[in-house]
Amino acid sequence: MKPWNQRLAPYLFIAPNMLIFGVFIIYPAINGFVVSGYDSNNGRTFRPVGVDNYGNLFGDAEFWTAARASVIFVLAFVVLCTAGAAGLALLLTQPIRARGFFRAVFFLPVLLSPVVVGLLWGWILERRAGALNSMLGADIPWLIDGRLALAVTVFVGVWTHVGFYTLIMMAGLQGIDGSYYEAARLDGASAWQRFRFVTLPLLRPTTLVVVILSLIAGFQAFDFIYTLTGGGPLGATTLMVQYVYEHAFRSPIRYGLAAAGSVVLFVTIFALTMLNFLYARRREAV
Amino acid sequence: MRRPPTTGRVLTYAGLIALTLLFLAPVVWTALSSFKDRTELAARPPALLPQTFALDNYTEALSRFDFTIYLRNSLVVTVSATVLTLAINSMAAYALAKYNFRGRDLLFLVTLGTIMIPLQIILIPLQQVASQLGMTNSLLGMIIPPAATPTGVFLLRQYMLTIPDELVEAARMDGAGEFRIFLRLILPLCRPALAVVTIFSVIWRWNDFLWPLVIAQSQDLYTLPVALAQFNSEEVVPFNYILAMSVVSMLPVIIVFLLTQRHIVKGIAQTGFK
Amino acid sequence: MRFNRKMIVGAALLLAACAPGTNDSGTNSSAQNHLTYLYFTDGPDEQVTRALIKDFEQETGATVELQIIPFSELSQQLQGRIASNNAPDVFRTDTLTGYRDALLDLKANGQDIGAQFMDEARDYISGPGGSLLAVPSDLTMNGPFVNLDMFAKAGVTPPSQPWTWDELIANARKVQQANGTAFALAYDKSGHRFSGMLNQFGTNLFGANGVELDAAKASAAIRQFAELHQQGLMSKDFWLESGTKYKGAIDIFLAGDAPVCVSGNWQVSQFTKVAKFRWAAMPNPCAERCGGYPGGKFMAATKQSANPQLAAKFVAFMNSRAAQEKYAKEAQFLPTRKDLIASGVQYPNRAEDMATFLADVKRTDKAGFASTYSPGFSPTATTVVKELAAVIAGQESPDQAVTNIRAAAEKNLR
After folding, report:
1. Are residues C398 and C254 in the same domain?
2. Which of C355, C371, C399 represents a domain boundary (last residue)?
């Protein structure tokens, strides 16, 4: 048996943070979960409807379009963010000139407000004489063609967030003890083999952090998409968060349906995160 | 002694410079465009440079309200929330990383779970809670709720896992109290990770919009982002003001980043998430 | 990790304990003789609002705190603040839908002023039992603007009396060709603006007895609108590039990419400030009917106000004859008071353009007012944009769009 102070200490340490979580995040979230069993057009008068909201949600073609777009977006976003961050981190940990400058450059978009990011890229990518098409002398329907618009949305998302994950990846890379590389070199491993058999496996725990954080960020992406494409053309880039948001705050208001949508969204993210953890734990990464 | 550059190095620099253009050009363009008026902004194809470097967008937008009050509120909120974040996040992370106690896994899951809940979705119940606690219309209401950042706990916990348990045990053998160990042993070891969380927290709190808007109902409690958004009316979204104001609000964070950039990178370097 | 039965029971109890709903009996925490006024601004109206508030404070000894937020957050803020017993005493809004049950009866609080405002809005601002829930604080009128420099170059004179739609299209095309602009016409991406075209084609989304929308007329309007895009007279991209979100056509107009732009009187002060060419408002074109499409803002007080009498008094003051005249003059808004509509407002700037809009108010079919003041209007306007985009993209026939819009309108009215 441990002494009492060691048994009590963790609870005291964790209490302030958990108190705030409980009051300001978890309690309202549970409230939101409960609301998914009601119908409301203003968020203050409620009529119980059982599971109708879920029925309506799953019966709504627009919900499935949004879910499909979300899955594509998140998959691409996570893969590109993780790979991009790893690549950039590899580059930026080389002994290069002006390394501090380059590191700052990739972090800059993280500082821009998402609203400005959306407006800015929307303006660059306008078909008729937007900056990019003017420069290329081309007529590419970046934001007009549904598939292209979704791809653009992924690109802008990665552009904005990759700097954040790059910093975390650089940490992982620089945390790898140089002696492993020495040993591999002595064994005659080529540069590729050193990367494949030393860097990659030792980077796995960092990769897990990046995958999980980007997965969550991907599912929550909203602000910049709203100003970039507004969810268009014809709903092609309307993701689940926007679907929920519009039902909650844009006329006609269907608050309960929005709550049901956010419950589904939450369960999806949570399940995927857990899968990642279990997979990582199986590989003894955590 | 100079060696001729290898193909690899040439490629590295070429890649870096191309990527730099991709990342830097839009930001620089934002800054340049913030000097253009509405007509210039609407011009197609857009010009790279503004016709004149007129400060109208800046002066007009800023003269519409008392800039110093909002700047002060933003500073107070950012600084106090960040200090609070560092304190409670590191304590929570320490409990999760270095103790074995009932409910630990559940609390870790809860922490992860809270990262996943978007603010937009819990806004109305959240407003009710804040109102019941009398936190609306107070700076405290803007500081306390966002201070418990789940991402901060997550990052710090992952870092603390790399500190060997033996260190903690040894300190206990020497008769150090639990809090003393945390304060004198763990925190100094975590300094790099704390620096990372500091930077993230400063960025988040400085740019927060939705939460301060909900809490600060009186205009003398507005933070910069809230004050700056007032220009967005129903039918007219003044892009020229938005650009100018985003440059204004970006500058302080860029300066903070440039000053601490070395420290973050070094901080992250030593973090070595395991 | 183990989930035991105790935890599940606990969670269930917790869920049951927080069934939603709020006590509506609460009052906000405004001090005695103090009011909060939640406001969104269109620009030039802010200064004059502040000046009027000063007048009110001097006259009554009360204090009024103006709280300005961006329009995009208005609905979210109001919902949240009302739900948490924290409602502003008075607010400005574009719609009463969703707030009606929270509004203060101005009549019961000493301000029986409903009859002073235009009759068309009467039903909309009235609550159950003859109560008065709000007053219209300004009226807007949709209408076209023309680039006079471009018209002059093409030798076309903008009319003082309305053109037909065909004349508008033919002349706009002529001006477009003479100036080599990318488009002939620009039209705000807004269900409200398109409702003006519907009204001109002889039908409306809503009438006095619910959903009206005549299938043949609506279909004709949509077909005409889509053709303009397919022929390249209007920008197809504009409708597809930003989803169903509102987007103003004025940027196309300001950049000199189209000689005609359909928006409304609220742009007058903006154009005065930034346009780098000569411009003017023009009467709305006619098809079956003439005139434009009305809209506007309201001012209301909330039941939660700790000072209901004062709140009602403030609403009445801000919309008194003298105050509204000042407000309309400074901000280039149109009046909603019967006495001001009758006498007219002497605008210090751009008086001719304002006169053009006022003339169109008189030409506008009364059915347009019934439609715009229908509780189903603002939700259906979003559907209109979505369906128009689908037709313009060639994914849907005009008839199909009409069917879908009708279905949405019926659902939204229920």
Report:
1. yes
2. C355
C84 lies in which domain range?
Answer: 5-139+295-355
- Which residue, B36, B213, B154, is CA-closest to C73? B213
Q: Note the pLDDT of residue C378.
A: 86
CB contact under 8 A, C14 and A30: yes
Low-confidence ranges of chain B (pLDDT < 50): 1, 266-274
Confidence (pLDDT) at A33: 84
CA distance B16 to chain C (A): 32
CA-CA distance, C177 to C231, in Å (whole number)?
13
Q: Which of C:215-254 have CB within 8 Å of B? A: 246, 248, 250-252, 254
Which residue in C36, C79, C252 is closest to B217 by CB distance?
C36
Task: Choose the mutation target among A6, A17, A103, A115 for the interface with B, i.e. most B CBs under 10 Å.
Answer: A17
Element holding C154 (H helix, E strand): helix C148-154
**CA–CA separation, B50 and C115 (whole Å):** 53
Q: Which of A25, A94, A255 sits opposite B117 (nearest CB)?
A: A25
| pLDDT for C21 beyond 70 | no
When divided into structural domains, chain C yields a total of 2
Cα distance between residue B73 and residue B178, in whole Å: 36
Identify the residue among B106, B108, B111, B217 best suited for mutation to test binding to C, counting C beta carbons within 10 A and taking the highest: B217
Other CB atoms within 10 Å distance of the CB of residue C66: 17
- Report the residue from B87, B148, B207 with minimal CB separation from A113: B207
The residue of chain C with its CA nearest to that of B214 is: C77
Nearest-angstrom CA–CA distance, C344 and C347: 9
Residue/partner pairs of B254-260 with CB below 8 Å, 24 or more apart: B254/A108, B254/A111, B256/B199, B256/B202, B257/A104, B257/A107, B257/A111, B257/B199, B258/A104, B260/B195, B260/B198, B260/B199
Do C105 and C160 belong together in one domain? Answer: no
Average pLDDT over chain A, rounded to whole? 87
Could you tell me which of C252, C187, C250, C237 has the C-alpha nearest to residue A143? C237
pTM for this prediction:
0.87
Residue in C129, C95, C132 with CA at minimum distance from that of residue C117 = C132
pLDDT per position as a tens digit, C189-236:
999 999 999 999 999 999 888 899 999 999 999 999 999 999 999 999
- Note the pLDDT of residue B34: 86
Residues from chain C that touch B229, judged by Cβ atoms under 8 A, are: 69-70, 73
First to last CA, chain A: 27
What are the chain B neighbours of C275 within 8 Å (beta carbons)?
Answer: 39
- CATH number of the domain within which C128 lies: 3.40.190.10
Of C20, C382, C411, the CB nearest to A251: C382
Please tell me whether residues C303 and C289 are part of one structural domain.
no
pLDDT reading at C240 higher than 60: yes
Q: How far apart are CA B29 and CA C26, in angstroms?
A: 51
List chains adjacent to chain B, taking adjacency as at least 3 C-beta pairs closer than 8 Å.
A, C
Taking one residue from A and the other from C, the number of pairs with CB-CB distance under 8 angstroms is: 106
| B221, closest residue in chain C (CA to CA) | C67
- ipTM beyond 0.95? no
Of C355, C371, C404, the last residue of a domain is: C355
Query: What pairs with residue C257 in β-bridges?
Result: none
Q: pLDDT for B226-251, tens place per residue? A: 887 777 777 666 777 778 877 887 78
Output the pLDDT for position C20: 61
**pLDDT for A243 beyond 80:** yes
Residue C243 and residue C173 share a domain: yes
- Cα distances (angstroms) measured from residue B164 to each of A73, A141, B167: 39, 55, 6
Buried b (16+ CB within 10 A) or exposed e, B96-123: bbbbebeebeebbebbbbbbbbbbbbbb
Q: Smallest Cα–Cα separation from B115: which of A169, A27, A67, A273?
A: A273
For position B262, what pLDDT does the model report?
63
